[in-house]
Design a protein that fits this description.
The chain has helices at about 5-15, 20-30, 35-45, 50-55, 55-60, 105-115, 120-125, 130-135, 140-145; strands at about 70-75, 75-80, 85-90, 95-100. It is an alpha+beta fold. A two-stranded antiparallel ribbon has the order 1-4. It has a two-stranded antiparallel ribbon with strand order 2-3. Residues about 130-145 have low confidence and may be disordered.
Length: about 150
């Protein structure tokens, strides 16, 4: 999937959750609205999409408040002092954490900033094509379901 197509899908998902792309674009990029396709083309060029991806308004809409968040906590090793005063090494196994947070978008912004490719990070949260089709009221063709 190209960067432009990924941006289009990310924007559609955020708009579904209440993001006003036109207003954001006119406020942050250009005062004149060129149309949605030209706006996405402009964002896809020269890494201008970073302004959109790290926008708090976009993040709040993309990751709705109060939705369940699942993420993997990696294994880690750290040292601590036990009850006898000895320094010991503690190794925690990786685990999946599920919780509901009001400001889950802040967590994802931090993780996206630390990721080498922000579009790849955020694209993991797009609904699959079957979920999107059922959400829009369309059914997949019989051949696709087989």
């Amino acid at each position: 999937m190209s960067r432009k197509e990924a941006l289009r899908q990310l924007i559609h998902q955020a708009q579904f959750n209440g993001f006003e792309f036109r207003h954001w674009f006119q406020t942050h990029m250009k005062a004149v609205w060129p149309g949605s396709e030209q706006a996405i083309t402009l964002l896809a060029s020269e890494r201008r999409y970073y302004a959109l991806l790290f926008s708090h308004d976009f993040a709040r809409s993309f990751w709705r408040p109060g939705t369940q968040m699942c993420f993997a906590v990696p294994s880690m090793t750290y040292s601590r002092v036990n009850t006898r005063g000895d320094v010991i090494q503690v190794t925690r196994k990786p685990f999946t954490r599920r919780l509901m947070k009001r400001d889950v978008w802040k967590y994802h912004l931090r993780e996206m900033a630390a990721s080498p490719d922000p579009i790849l990070y955020i694209s993991r949260f797009l609904p699959s094509s079957t979920e999107a089709a059922s959400r829009n009221g369309h059914r997949e063709p019989m051949a696709a379901r087989a």
